[in-house]
């Protein structure tokens, strides 16, 4: 079945006000600004206020995307929130967002694909709009990772931050841009290298294990690093090839914002100049599913690419999961 083309009609993002700098982290764990900067590129990250939930950040990003897309919340037909830090295990964070937006007509659900979640959501929304099941969709990547961080573990607490990014998708009209190609993948044999082990049904948090920080992110950094470079490079090449583009046709690559060394390695392997690769992780750290969504919004609004130009988004996360999208903007 051939699917109708789908365009991104608007984007939005939201970052909490509170900035946590590397200098402040030096006072919390045994680390230095020099170590964090040289190993990751991160200088600061945002931390949600107490009482500010993933759904609140998602809603704020969504409102901006809807405004730019000139679509009213009441006309939305689908809301997908990608998150690993939902407000509650159930119902889905997307249901809170639907209520906050008063988007009464929209079906709403979450997907859990870690840092790759936003592009997984894009793939789903694109196919549902393309097949005619819905006429538009709001996709959001939103995370309150600070609530799942072990603030005593220097290996992980320096890496993550909070925030949300959103996009509104609808059928592409004549002369508009469209999503050219997408690629998503999973390797479930590698669940152990990056996960939150506790808090699910396999290991509920009990009185006996409550102090063990089991509901915090745990990671084998070096292994994740290697996999991230390989999977993102392969996924990006696949969507570029499938779209019939070459690296010269790409105005901007928007990669997952986890580590500057990973981003540099991907730019190198894709043979793309560093100035064509968008980076904002120095300001926000790794915001998981929100990262590529925030980066897409910031890059678009700051004029890094224009309507009619081609961009490539590419992500990687726990699962393992990975995804890429080539988009004519
Ligand atoms: C986490 C990461 C930055 C670590 O960088 P690295 O160069 O691999 O560093 P290593 O793990 O080899 O650690 C080197 C040393 O620094 C120490 N270290 C770790 N965190 C530190 C910190 N915040 N400050 C100071 N030292 C730190 C380690 O304990 C280790 O010390 P040791 O040699 O005495 O054991 C890097 O592996 C990475 O970014 N991995 C991918 C992470 C990622 O992208 N995750 C999300 C995917 S979606």
Question: What topology does this entry show?
Answer:
Layout: E1 6-14, E2 18-21, H1 22-26, H2 33-40, E3 44-47, H3 54-69, E4 78-82, H4 93-101, E5 107-111, H5 117-130, E6 136-144, H6 154-157, E7 162-171, E8 178-186, E9 194-195, E10 218-219, H7 221-242, E11 250-255, H8 260-270, H9 281-284, H10 289-301, E12 310-317, E13 321-328
Parallel strand pairs: 4-5, 4-6, 11-12
Antiparallel strand pairs: 1-7, 2-3, 6-7, 8-13, 9-10, 12-13
The structure holds coenzyme A.
Coenzyme A (COA) binds at residues 31, 35-36, 39-40, 115, 154-155, 158, 194, 219, 221-222, 224-225, 228, 258-259, 262, 286, 316-317.
Verbal overview:
With 329 residues, this protein is an alpha/beta fold. It is globular and about 60 Å long. α4 links the parallel β4 and β5. It folds into two domains: 171 residues, Peroxisomal Thiolase, Chain A, domain 1; 150 residues, Thiolase/Chalcone synthase (Peroxisomal Thiolase, Chain A, domain 1, 3-Layer(aba) Sandwich), CATH 3.40.47.10. It has a five-stranded mixed sheet, sandwiched between helices. It has a four-stranded mixed sheet with strand order 8-13-12-11, sandwiched between helices. The chain contains ten helices and 13 strands. It binds coenzyme A.
Quick overview:
This protein has 329 residues and is an alpha/beta fold.
Using brief descriptors, characterize the structure shown:
10 helices, Peroxisomal Thiolase, Chain A, domain 1, alpha/beta, 5-stranded mixed sheet, 4-stranded mixed sheet
């Amino acid at each position: 079945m051939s699917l109708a083309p789908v365009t991104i009609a608007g984007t939005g993002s939201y970052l909490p006000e509170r900035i946590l700098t590397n200098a402040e982290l030096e006072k919390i764990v045994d680390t230095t600004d020099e170590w964090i900067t040289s190993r990751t590129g991160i200088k600061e990250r945002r931390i949600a206020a107490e009482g500010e939930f993933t759904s609140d950040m998602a809603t704020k990003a969504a409102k901006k995307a809807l405004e730019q897309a000139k679509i009213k919340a009441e006309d939305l037909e689908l809301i997908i929130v990608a998150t690993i830090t939902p407000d509650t295990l159930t119902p889905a964070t997307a249901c809170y967002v639907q209520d906050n937006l008063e988007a009464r007509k929209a079906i709403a659900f979450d997907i859990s694909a870690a840092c790759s979640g936003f592009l997984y959501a894009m793939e789903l929304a694109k196919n549902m709009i393309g097949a005619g099941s819905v006429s538009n969709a709001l996709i959001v990547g939103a995370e309150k990772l600070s609530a799942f961080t072990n603030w005593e573990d220097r290996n992980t607490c320096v890496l993550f931050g909070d925030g949300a990014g959103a996009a509104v998708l609808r059928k592409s009209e004549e002369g508009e841009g469209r999503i050219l190609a997408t690629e998503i993948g999973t390797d479930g044999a590698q669940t152990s290298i990056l996960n939150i082990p506790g808090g699910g049904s396999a290991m509920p948090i009990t009185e006996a294990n409550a102090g063990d920080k089991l509901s915090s992110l745990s990671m084998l950094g070096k292994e994740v690093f290697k996999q991230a470079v390989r999977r993102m490079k392969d996924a990006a090449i696949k969507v570029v090839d499938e779209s019939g583009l070459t690296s010269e046709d790409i105005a901007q690559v928007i990669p997952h914002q986890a580590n500057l060394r990973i981003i540099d390695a991907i730019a190198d392997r894709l043979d793309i100049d560093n100035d064509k690769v968008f980076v904002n992780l120095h300001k926000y750290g790794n915001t998981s599913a929100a990262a590529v969504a925030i980066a897409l919004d910031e890059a678009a609004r700051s004029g890094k690419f224009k309507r009619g130009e081609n961009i490539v988004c590419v992500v990687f996360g726990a699962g393992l999961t990975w995804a890429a999208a080539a988009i004519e903007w």
